[in-house]
Design a protein that fits this description.
Two copies of one chain form a homodimer.
Chain A lengths: L14 E13 L3 E8 L2 E8 L9 E10 L7 E12 L18 H6 L1 H4 L3 H23 L3 E2 L5 E2 L11 E4 L2 E5 L4 H12 L1 E9 L12 E10 L4 H22 L1 H6 L7 H5 L3 E3 H12 L8 H15 L3 E5 L12 E2 L2 E2 L1 E6 L2 E9 L3 H7 L11 H8 L5 E7 H9 L20
Parallel strand pairs in A: 3-5, 6-10, 12-13
Antiparallel strand pairs in A: 1-2, 1-4, 2-3, 4-5, 7-9, 8-9, 10-11, 11-18, 13-16, 14-15, 16-17, 17-18
């Protein structure tokens, strides 16, 4: 029966077997120390004499567990037998047993299949798995249903720009930018409350630390809301659940990344300011008038929130109509829409949607759209659609900001950008 | 405070508000009965005189709850005030308040945004949401990590056929047929145990009741196994968790579809037969020699299992090498691979993978492949990859077979086939 590194203390003074990767080798002549890495942690193996192991080889070892206060974790395995399950070639393209601080982004991503072995890098994705869990658990607890919609669409709900084209038999279709259309359809179907975890695609030629051409979108849509305030309340619930889960279950990852998550009290203090107020704040801080909130402005708003509300985040709502998609519910000259800025970065966009069929028909021409071009979409509203709204959280951006990663690509297992389609 | 249909009994003899869709209208002159549908169920509204409501309109109503043994559920709401939140046009393309038995597949799918309102059809996707939950919960309980890999790949791991092409800036890339490459990479990274819930694409021109061009794949991959028997054991654990959850939480859906799920004892009785034995069984039952297990053969094997083992399912293992992908671990002239047939349909394919670098290099030319064409893939093995394997369960096929749907497209929210790319 294989024992994991994290469980070795329970087996002191007994014979056990362990399996894992050769993480480090230190040969001292009469004795060798080998660190063995498995999914749960790292343990010290002790060999008499030299070993002929190479770094990253996979082994199955048998030995005797003993206490040694100098060993990592306080226990070690005196090895009596080793099976080499898979020998690693000695030409590792990046070192696995060193902290990755000196590796550049290209070195990490070009050698992704090896850099993911670096424990601190692998932790990014252990955390991401946990975020997926907390997000889904919280929403299921609120009576939400998980949906899986098609990523192959005939036309874009956001208009035709920024779409990747797919050759689909005799047709040309597009990769969906968001499940917007489908999550609204499912709300109107009577499910009322839905969420989707799925890929989203943006064919934009940006190359910035905040953009990916393929990302994981945590999408939420819910019926019978009144304004975007209801949606911000819902997002607060989700964020509290995610942050509390991370703090409870993954303190080791936060420590490895010298990171922390906001407390529930912090999250409750996130200010809600209008787009106009946000522009004022940024203008005043930068000393010149701004007309939109660009990335620099997002950082300034968060810095202002930290100074004035003790939390490095802000909801911005009341965007003008022309800055939001056609389906956004109007509120005078403004809209019932919002963004969430967190640690200097927009991680959520959302809002109430137009649910009234006549209002939607009236709106289309103002955005240069026709009912014919959106006939599928309009069917949702023709037959009774409740007031509703929703938002999406970018999984990689949230991960990035929790851990303090400098580039969002570090938070994507296999990121895609204009030049990168492998591995 | 809105009360849901399922909670009305707790509010008897009080004034409450409810919201939902107008499901049915029966006007009797002096009095009208309206069924109101919300996400939790259906409740009877009573109006004095006539109403001017249309079917599927969305309303918010206020009224007094009273007991009435003739009302569905035993309670009804005497309405004192109605807000029409969204009026539905009267030309519904398919009826929402009738059982869908007489609707053909095309009527259901061509009018998907309306047919999803039919309660029994919506239930398919409530069940699917629950399956996603049980699958993830079970694997997390077994120390698995959830991953999200890219669906845009430079080359196919299964060879180049059956891939959809995407115009990706200056490049042409493909939609992934499976996360095979990536889940193996994550096992080798040291995560050891991973699962992924994601879209998979097959550019095959089939039009059968068992194929989709885009489906949701429940992928599992795990390290330190010995043979495919370990994988079948794992899948048994997953299936028991899914079936037990469905039985516990969704008896209403099983009843509506006149369906049932196997018990844990049933699942333990699933026979494990070799591909050769399966061919013998099919040949003997059909009275002529068969050389592979086609869809008719899959039904025969399940029927044989039902008669002989009391469960309408069978694991088939030991497929010959030429019937499995190059990366399948050999076992003499056979391979350490398996399929799971459930209620007459293959719902899983899996196996141990080749993890030894020299064995993989030796295998490539036998399948007409070159190391250069698979250089990314080979990096996984060059640097120490443990023995491992995995499998994938088709979410729509599993849903279809649990509920007894005649076509897998019924189990996809927005199915994609050669001719269908909308809505």
């Amino acid at each position: 029966m294989r024992v994991l590194a994290r469980d070795i203390a329970a087996h002191v003074n007994t014979e056990i077997t362990m399996s894992g990767w050769v993480h480090r080798i230190r040969e001292l002549g009469a004795i060798s120390f080998v660190l063995l890495r498995d999914r749960s942690g790292i343990v010290q193996l002790v060999y008499d004499g030299k070993t002929d192991l190479t770094l990253e080889s996979v082994v199955h070892v048998k030995g005797h567990v003993r206490e040694n206060e100098k060993a990592p974790g306080g226990f070690e395995l005196q090895v009596s037998h080793t099976d080499l399950l898979a020998k690693a070639e000695p030409d590792l393209p990046v070192p696995v047993n060193q902290e990755p601080d000196n590796l550049g982004l290209d070195a990490i991503l070009d050698n992704r299949l090896v850099s993911l072995r670096i424990p601190r890098i692998r932790m990014i994705f252990t955390l991401q798995s946990a975020i997926l869990r907390y997000f889904a658990e919280y929403l299921r607890g609120q009576d939400f249903t998980e949906i899986k919609s098609s990523k192959l669409i005939g036309t874009g709900t956001e208009g035709g720009t920024g779409l990747f084209t797919v050759e689909y038999f005799e047709n040309r279709v597009y990769l969906a930018q968001s499940p917007q259309f489908y999550k609204q359809a499912m709300v109107a179907s009577g499910m009322e409350r839905v969420f989707e975890i799925g890929a989203a695609y943006r064919a934009e030629k940006h190359d910035t630390p905040r953009h990916l051409n393929e990302y994981v979108s945590l999408d939420v849509e819910t019926a019978f809301i009144e304004t975007e305030q209801d949606l911000m309340d819902l997002e607060i619930g989700i964020l509290k659940a995610i942050f509390a889960g991370v703090k409870r279950d993954h303190q080791d990852i936060l420590e490895a990344w010298k990171a922390d998550v906001p407390s529930a009290d912090d999250v409750d203090r996130i200010p809600r300011i209008s787009h106009d107020e946000a522009k004022e704040i940024v203008s005043s801080r930068l000393g010149h008038r701004v007309f939109e909130i660009n990335p620099e402005g997002e950082r300034e708003v968060c810095e202002w929130a930290r100074e004035n509300h003790g939390i490095d985040a802000a909801f911005v709502n009341g965007f003008p109509r022309k800055k939001r998609p056609f389906y956004t519910f109007p509120d005078g000259q403004k809209t019932m829409s919002f963004d969430l800025l967190f640690r200097g970065l927009e991680i959520t966009t959302g809002g109430r949607r137009i649910n009234e069929y006549p209002m939607l028909l009236e709106t289309l021409p103002k955005f240069g759209l026709t009912p014919e071009g959106l006939s599928d979409y309009l069917q949702i509203f023709r037959y009774g659609c409740p007031p509703h709204g929703g938002f999406a959280i970018g999984l990689e951006r949230l991960t990035q900001k929790i851990l303090g990663l400098s580039n969002v690509k570090e938070a994507s297992l296999f990121p895609r950008d204009r030049k990168r389609v492998r591995p």
